[in-house]
Amino acid sequence: MSKKPIVPDNELIEMYRNSHDVKYIGELFMRYHHLISVICLKHLKNQDDAQDTTMDIFEVLTHDLKKHQVKQFKAWIMTVTKNLCYKRLRKSAHLTVDENMLKDEGAFMEMEAGASLNEIKETQLVRMEQYLEEIPADQSQCLKLFFLENKSYQEISDQTGMTLNEVKSHLQNGKRNLRIRMEKT
Length: 185
Fold this sequence. Notes:
By secondary structure, this protein is mainly alpha-helical. About 80% of the residues lie in helices and about 0% in strands.
């Protein structure tokens, strides 16, 4: 009995693109399932979230491999996995209180003793909105799109007409400027 030859990743991708048969995606997914799971668990630090995100990757594959030419599947799937984890973390960050707010004793002491987490978060958001108006418009726009609308760098670039490097720069500088203003109060 001879073993069935292993079809290279790029050929499986091409067969999927031509036939739209998910069995090819399934085979690719199974090859890298362990790696995807480990990356998700490393970033999300929660078994259930990691499993959910791992399954979301399969769905992403069925859509994205039709649209994108992928030369190095392993590197590409690792990047897609990390980005999906970051996106999930950004979404969950909206549900938690910013740790910096809790560390900021001055702002915390200004709150009434019985203030709820929602009130604290609301106060923090009001302050952030004020500071967003004080920083340069491009930085403010990128921060709002990235954090409030959960847009990717590419989506921000497409929407604003900025290059990816400009988007990254505005996000980095905007976060720094926002942090400086938050620390002053």
